[in-house]
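Progress note, sequence design subtask.
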């Protein structure tokens, strides 16, 4: 009787813990990028952060969402991927605006120190140029959005055609996990090139990629 009397307390408490764990799973992955976003916005300097980190996470989470259509996993993991994609797009938007503004300001300072008659506006780079040298360093945020949509469309169409193939679905899940496992590589290469550990803040707390492995 005493145990049954405590059910009114234990059941809501278990539900509350379950909701809290799901919320932490959904939003926990984006928490490390909040101070990074604030730091870039405050200093107006994105040199310490590699936008290829955004590329890796965008690819990994798009692939994870496509994997969900072939093999359903827990809803919090699905929402985690959606929230992470939106977060990476926000990071890309800020980094692009800051980089383009700094490039223009540099041109203006160079103009002030020289005798040129006009300011040369930095050349606009677009993903439609298909220039690998400037890949993922485009001048407009809309270029990143279009590239992500193009990849999502092509990958989604291929997934639609091969959704009944177990081998394809398993390969999709493996690629999602493998891509996310390479998260630290872009930032590591950038820091090695600049001989600095600036920008590593967002990579100290890693998202646990084994969540999707459990689903696999």
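Output:
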């Amino acid at each position: 009787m005493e145990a049954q009397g405590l059910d009114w307390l234990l059941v809501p408490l278990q539900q509350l813990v379950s909701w809290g764990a799901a919320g932490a799973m959904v939003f926990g992955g984006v928490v490390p990028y909040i101070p990074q976003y604030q730091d870039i916005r405050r200093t107006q300097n994105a040199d310490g952060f590699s936008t290829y980190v955004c590329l890796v996470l965008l690819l990994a989470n798009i692939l994870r969402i496509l994997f969900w259509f072939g093999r359903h996993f827990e809803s919090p993991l699905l929402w985690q991927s959606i929230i992470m994609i939106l977060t990476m797009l926000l990071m890309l938007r800020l980094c692009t605006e800051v980089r383009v503004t700094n490039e223009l300001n540099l041109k203006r300072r160079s103009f002030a120190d020289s005798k040129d008659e006009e300011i040369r506006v930095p050349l606009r780079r677009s993903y439609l140029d298909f220039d690998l040298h400037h890949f993922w360093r485009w001048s407009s945020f809309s270029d990143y959005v279009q590239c992500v949509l193009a990849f999502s469309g092509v990958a989604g169409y291929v997934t639609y055609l091969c959704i009944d193939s177990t081998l394809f679905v398993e390969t999709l899940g493996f690629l999602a996990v493998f891509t996310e496992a390479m998260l630290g590589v872009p930032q590591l290469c950038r820091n090695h090139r600049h001989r600095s550990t600036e920008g590593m803040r967002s990579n100290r707390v890693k998202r646990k990629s084994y969540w999707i492995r459990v689903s696999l």
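Residues 47-107+138-183 form one domain. Work on this subtask will continue into the next period as scheduled.
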